Amino acid sequence: MNENRVGSVELIEGVPKLQATQIFAFQNDRGKDLTALEKIKAYLMQQVYSVSPSQQKSEDEIRNLEGLFADIYQRAERIKHYGEDQVLGHHCIAYLPAGSSSIEMVKSALKQVDKPSRLDWICLFAINLKESFLAMEEIERLSLQNCSIADCLLLSPASVIPLLLKLFRYTTGETEIKIERINSICAHVERVLFRLEYTNADYRTDAFPSLARGYSGQYEDLTTRIRETAKRGFQTWWDFEGACREYFKGTYHYSSKIKYVLWKYENRLRERKRMHPISPADFQNKYGRENLENTIDHITPGKPSFTVYTDEFRQHWLHNIGNLTLMAWGDNSEKRNLNPVKEADMYDATAFVSHKEIRDLLLERQQWGENEIKTRRDALPKSSPKAQ
């Protein structure tokens, strides 16, 4: 960890500490703009001096604050895929009234506190922020293998991370029981996020941030609320499940977001065969193995070298989910634009169980057209895989 991390007011010799905190609010020791986290630390230190009843009290509170932020910075450096300002932003959404930025949310919230209580508020904010960085480190670690948490992060991290921070903060019990309870909530959250993502409707309401803001350990109430939301959505007039099913009845699914559905289907087939699933880490290629970088491929190719598609087929079936599959980059380049019937053996040479299904259908039908695409489409999820 960088010992000269911005915000330590001991860095400027001969400058009164209150003035030093004001300097740090604009510029660090390297002449670079501060991060939002550093600005908030400097602001809180300045506020400690302005509201402390005595010099000794302010010195004690500053030492306490510096110790808490030192722990926060250590945790921030251990978190690989979320920047410190991202975690800060999610924390502020979870704990503070809505605002335009993290620093503005902190300033606005503190102004609402009576001056005699501001020191306590600042201390509690820093303690909770430290807990959020601790939680984010654990969330990131678990999400590499824990599909319930990973599913939510894959579908909509901005929606769910504030709630996850609160869940890790307030869920009690032994570690195994705590994670089991969080997983249970995440399974319901995933159903909601899935239907928000895969739908023909224009759903603009996302109440997860407000759920996070209001949560302080009412586990059963939260479970009931999210379970009901999974059925009807955030508004009573939504046709939540129906709009999702209509999306999968549509004709065009060729986009990056369909990878999630194909991955979950692959893992469902693996579960039936009692095989190890493709972990969230491998699905996202967290370890940088390029041959495992999953992409979406057409079963019968977009630019065939063996036929000419009709306009009707191009419009309704070429980009249908039934004609799409996960494919590793290497396999995709080998397959090129060939006739899938002639190249059925290639689907036997991959690690994907879903490819074996495709191969079997190709060998059975000896063609790949509208009927085969319908057959595969009907086998794929029409709603959240967890609801199947």
Description:
The chain is mostly helical and 388 residues long. The chain has two domains: 9-232, no CATH class; 250-383, no CATH class. Helix content is 59%, strand content 3%. The chain has helices spanning 17-24, 36-51, 55-78, 84-95, 102-111, 118-143, 147-155, 157-170, 175-197, 208-214, 219-232, 240-249, 258-272, 280-283, 311-316, 329-335, 353-365, 370-379, and strands spanning 294-298, 324-328. Strands 1-2 form a two-stranded antiparallel ribbon. The longest helix has 26 residues, at 118-143. Residues 6-15 and 25-30 have low confidence and may be disordered.
N-to-C SSE string, H for helix and E for strand: HHHHHHHHHHHHHHEHEHHH
Content-based structural category: mainly alpha
Q: Name the quaternary structure.
A: single chain
Helix percent reads 55-70%
- Global mean pLDDT: 87
Q: List the domain count as a whole number.
A: 2
Low-confidence stretches: 6-15, 25-30
Rg for CA atoms = 26 Å
Tell me the distance between the termini: 47 Å
Shape: elongated
Beta-strand residue percentage:
under 5%
* Helix run count: 18
Largest sheet: 2 strands, antiparallel
- Strand element count: 2
With strands numbered from the N-terminus, the spatial order across the biggest sheet is: 1-2
